[in-house]
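Hi all, long-time lurker, first post. I run a small reading group and we've been trying to get comfortable going from sequence to structure in the token notation. Rather than ask abstract questions, I figured I'd post a concrete chain and ask someone more experienced to write out its structure so we can walk through it together at our next meeting. Sequence below, copied exactly:
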Amino acid sequence: MNLYTEYINEIEERKSQGLHPKPIDTAELLSEIISYLKEKNSPYRKDCLHFFIYNTLPGTTSAAGKKAYFLKDIILGKEIVSEITPAFALELLSHMKGGTSIEVLLDLALGTNETIAREAAEVLKTQVYLYEADTDRLKAAYTNGNAIAKGILESYAQAEFFTKLPAVPEEIKVVTFIAGEGDISTDLLSPGNQAHSRSDRELHGKCMITPQAQEEIKALQAQHPDKTVMLIAEKGTMGVGSSRMSGVNNVALWTGKQASPYIPFVNIAPIVGGTNGISPIFLTTVDVTGGIGIDLKNWVKKVDENGNIIRNENGDPVLEQAYSVATGTVLTINTKTKKLYNGSQELIDISRSFTPQKMEFIKAGGSYAIVFGKKIQTFACKVLGMDIPTVFAPSKEVSHEGQGLTAVEKIFNKNAVGTTPGKILHAGSDVRVEVNIVGSQDTTGLMTAQELESMAAKVISPIVDGAYQSGCHTASVWDKKAQANIPKLMQFMNDFGLITARDPKGVYHPMTDVIHKVLNDITIDEWAIIIGGDSHTRMSKGVAFGADSGTVALALATGEASMPIPESVRVTFKGTMKSYMDFRDVVHATQAQMLHTFGGENVFQGRIIEVHIGTLTADQAFTFTDWSAEMKAKASICISEDETLIESLEIAKGRIQIMINKGMDNAHQVLKGLIDKANKRIADIKSGDKPALRPDANAKYYAEVEIDLDAINEPMIADPDVNNKDVSKRYTHDIIRPLSFYGGTKNVDLGFIGSCMVHKGDMKILAQMLKNIEKQEGKVVFKAPLVVAPPTYNIVDELKAEGDWEVLQKYSGFEFDDNAPKSAARTEYENMLYLERPGCNLCMGNQEKASKGDTVMATSTRLFQGRVVEDSEEKKGESLLSSTPVVVLSSVLGRTPSIEEYKKAVEGINLTKFAPPHKLLVR
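-- Answer (accepted) --
Happy to help. Here is the structure in token form:
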């Protein structure tokens, strides 16, 4: 009984951390626990009974299988446990959410004992997580005249698993808690540096916001036991940044309700709000848990007597409070009138939070149950030969006769499932779509695995063209946490059917490439839909959506995703780039010019940016689509010329072939299949049968923005503006400043070139600049550390072949060694060049960080407080984001360069250039 002894020791260790026993997920441990609870005189029996009933994970975990079979034996009378009656055993099975529990319930329902069969059938009628093996058994039994099977199918056809659930309360009382002022990053709710603990929900919950905030939440709950605490982003957007299921899980853990009394630390129904609403990615995750997200609009732009917006000395709109949501305010959500009240005073209409579909998610305890429920209803009706009764809210279908389609509308119409035949759908339509490519990243992957287990999925959907499990977020440091988590994750995902960055068998070399770069390579059709477990799932081919770990699991299990067709904003360009400018500056200028054009309103937020980039290959264009996450867009689509798309697909083919050559393809030859699809797509473009994707000339956009390249005269820097007197303006990504703003005097403590924002060209720019500086100055001396992390091994190999890696080696003081990976995060940096292992590195902030209080100049994506650099007692840490040339020069000088110094340093260097297409890219 060694495992149980080890478990007890672990429990004692967790007690010292204020934690409960860790939920059980292995059959081996549960077998020992069952052995003890069967022994009436065992001193461990009482505890083991509790662990068995209340602390075993459901779904397809091996422990769940062991539990289900033991409960079956109790129901059949083969085992007797006085505290677990057959009726209680059936109740426990009803909470186990699929997998072996469904197999057991079907065994009982289709068995020879009529009493047990009827009782098991009643439980089965409440279950929705059935897969083909389960439905095949039901169909076969029905075909053979089994009355029990017929009754189950008739119940499914009427969706009684949904209709018999309790109704959503008409009134929900909430008490407010201001989680922060300004945008609330998911880093605040689930810090990146605690990523290793995300699959241990109770432990990870302790990192939400601060211990002080957690105590304040508990105090509100004690003061208002009949109310739900609503977390609020005052004067900001809730849940910006990463697509973290763990963030919503933490909010639910502290403020939601337990999903089942028999499933530990899985809570649902959190309620969140933001003055500017909820980030689209975060709102999807809230839906997954049956929660509520509210756009509060409690601060509004102040206007004068003529209705004109009043602005402050900085040109920003002056805000005035429409109503207060100060911490401790009691409000009432009315789900019938769809209004928010303070007592009897109506505050705001919140209809968008309670659409018919969202009401279903709330009633069912989450969106998964609705997705699987609809599938099981459709199956039952097909077997019974009947029309599908209208139980669920019909999908909203918006169609405007004579109106053309935007690019995203075309993609959604092509991939739509279950829509009215022949009907063309426009933005606002609720659509279920087939997903082509799915990505899971390593710090959320264990949660995705848990979600797959909880929905009883065992193998990837055959609909999915390709799926990839990355190892980039844990690439920097191969420490004990990574060694404990990552091999287990890779084994699970490899078995499930994904291509994995690390080979569980150890045949091919670990590939820690940044996930977004790999997904961009394996996307071989610009009509594809991609779902990935990271907010920077923003491919420059197709349309890609960053998603929480649960939505990723759903896409892997079903090959589908559901969402409204988003509105689009068209971005075009005019003018000519200056010779000394880099495309990264165009990306930042796009955001700045958009905000200026629309008076500070971010028209990109929650919408698709349809960028007519035309002449840039997918590698280079990804710099734009990637940054669309920082623009708060839902996604971005690149409109390319035929020749450019063909070039991008040829590059993708070459890189997929390298993966095959490394031995990364699986038994189903998924990677070979992608190359075949790429060849077919290239042939269709060349023949003219299916040219590159274009929107229609008469498509309708929410807004259109033309970016003036002539107006971009100097490098553009995204500044966190950490000392802005208006706290809500800090860390927003919206402050874009020209290089000259800093006057060549701002100290820079560390430079970072890496993350998904850079490509091979950036690495070549680095090498060329170092040679330039040595030629001009006689030598290269770094006055600040420069950390360089190439995004992929392919890029490293290409740089070696072309001689650029040798240049970088010459100037470096550290080069990564795959045979001896770092086992501890670096805490101090010297003034030299560090060549780090491909992967996320400093951008993620979960392993290595800059020194506290540093000013960092980086090519990465995130400038949130504490992400790349934490504050010190003396100074706020800040991460300024810029192009590769600015980062290089800032590291050499130890400060921001003047515009003259910058121009001199980039003379003769091949910066990433962009010229607008010569023709309008429409059909």
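A couple of things your group might point at:
Residues 638 and 664 are 29 Å apart (CA to CA).
The chain has a mean pLDDT of 93.
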